[in-house]
Amino acid sequence: MNYINMGNIKTYIKGKNRLSGSVRISGAKNAALPELAAALLSNDEFEFSGVPRVEDIKVMFKALKNIGAEGEFNNNFINIKVPEIKSSLVPKDIVETSRASILILGPLLARSGYAKVSLPGGCSIGDRHINFHLEGLRKMGAEITEKNEHITAKTSAPLQGIAYRFPQKTVTGTENLLMAAVLAQGTTVLENCALEPEIGDLVDLLLKMGADIEGKNSDTLEITGRSTLKGTRHRVIPDRIEMGTYVIAGSFAGNEIVVENAVPGYIESLLDILEKVGVNLEVDNDRIKVSSNGNLHPIDIETSPFPGFPTDLQAQLTTLLTQAEGVSRVKENIFNNRFQHALELNKLGADIKIAGDTSIISGKTNLTGTDIIATDLRASAALVLGGLIAEGETIVANSYQLLRGYENMPQKLQELGAEVKLLGVKND
Ligand code: EPZ
Question: pTM for this structure?
Answer without folding.
Answer: 0.97
